[in-house]
Amino acid sequence: MTQLAETLETSGYRDHDGAEMLRISDLHAFYGESHILHGVDLDVKRGELVTLLGRNGAGRSTTLKAIMSLVGRRTGSIVINGTETLALKPHRIPRLGVGYCPEERGIFASLDVEENLLLPPTVRSGGMSLDEIYEMFPNLYERRRSQGTRLSGGEQQMLAMARILRTGARLLLLDEITEGLAPVINQALAEVLLKLKARGMTIVLVEQNFRFAAPLADRHFVMEHGRIIEEISAAELPGRRDHLNRLLGV
Amino acid sequence: MTMIFGVPLAVFMGQLLLGLINGAFYALLSLGLAVIFGLLKIVNFAHGAQYMLGAFVALLGSRYLGLDYWLALLLVPLVVGGFGMLIERLLLRRIAHLDHLYGLLLTFGLALIFEGALINLFGVSGASYPIPEALQGGVNLGFMFLPIYRGWVLVAALAVCLFTWFMIERTRLGAYLRAGTENPALMQAFGVNVPLLITLTYGFGVALAAFAGVLAAPLYPVSPTMGSSLLIVVFAVVVIGGMGSILGAVLTGLAMGLIEGLTKVYYPEAANTVIFLVMILVLLLRPAGLFGKEA
What ipTM was estimated for this complex? Predict the structure, then answer.
């Protein structure tokens, strides 16, 4: 019976055969009186890894937060895996198979590493098992009894990612995961992202570190003033590198 | 006769036990306050009134419905806790986005309304609730006489404290609660129904107060004002222990009961104020409380 239920759930999930995992149309978002997003349009195909690039304050993190309904007010449309989510209650959105890794990582100090890892409820079947996760992040296994916030910055970042992999989420929203981390850690994170991509995960990466993101992504969206101003595919990237650098001000 | 610092052992132990029992009530009530404060960030000023409601519902239940003590111990916390959930859902949630001071004012107002309404209906004199048959009488421990009901109160209160600690520190639901206390928005982004968690938490805290009220009914006169006098001491206990620590709330509650009991033995005049003296000392030396985290 359980197996049947699982099969039903899984097949129900896969039955949506549109190639689109996420489509955002004319998204406006507000914090109180301040209007942060001014009509964002973007689409992400199943299994794609896209980046949101832009200067600080361009609205990249807010776009991820708006998808998770963590902003004050939203208008427009956000379709996740075929479901319009704008009117959904915030706790329903992750259950569509979305995992969110916030910029500040959000490791809980009152929970140890393993509790942190087990905290997010399962949203879909087919998530990684604890063993698989420990295999991918051996450091976390060694420190599983430590208080979550006692870990190094890199380990906390691994933990913040690992815990959404357990839930069965298929669309990962990752906010500035390389921020403040050593190059060797970033290298490890890049490998993790490639493995996740190989597993068919769809990933939206907000990234300041373009050198980290460039070799991983299929497409790049450049944001400015709360809008997408440019879309660059991986194939177009070499020819438009200078243009992109100018946009990002680097 | 054995003497301890010039006091007969029986008197000493008797006061110690009395103190411990008071401490058990402090522990139960400050535990509920700590649980509610943790997630809702509201100082629940209705806590004393909810404790009183527990005792009152048990009393009225036995008077008009023949509800027996054991059933009351089980049902009254559910009823009063359910009432608490209604308060959260219909009132507290509407002001959750405002400064938490408004929550304090709202619960304070509710406490006054409950108290006033019951005074209007039943007067302030208070009624007695019989000790259940199975727990009447006492046992001679050799060094003192222990009324069975008081022993039971101590055991039951500690068992509920231990159960609460276990639920919060060792279960998945408790992990949700601890994590929700730290970062409710992120919990929501993980798919946890945080508004429901808040309603349940408030209901649970209120149920703890009501449970304490039922336990207290056979010990103290059941009157509409029984909660407000106790709550002031409980707030002092919470300040001493520091908000937000479950174990801290329980240990501080018991310790303050003991200190109060000991003061009754050696300097009875100060028994009612000693907890507040401790509170002043703690505020001077460790403003976050003995178990509180420095902000």
Answer: 0.84
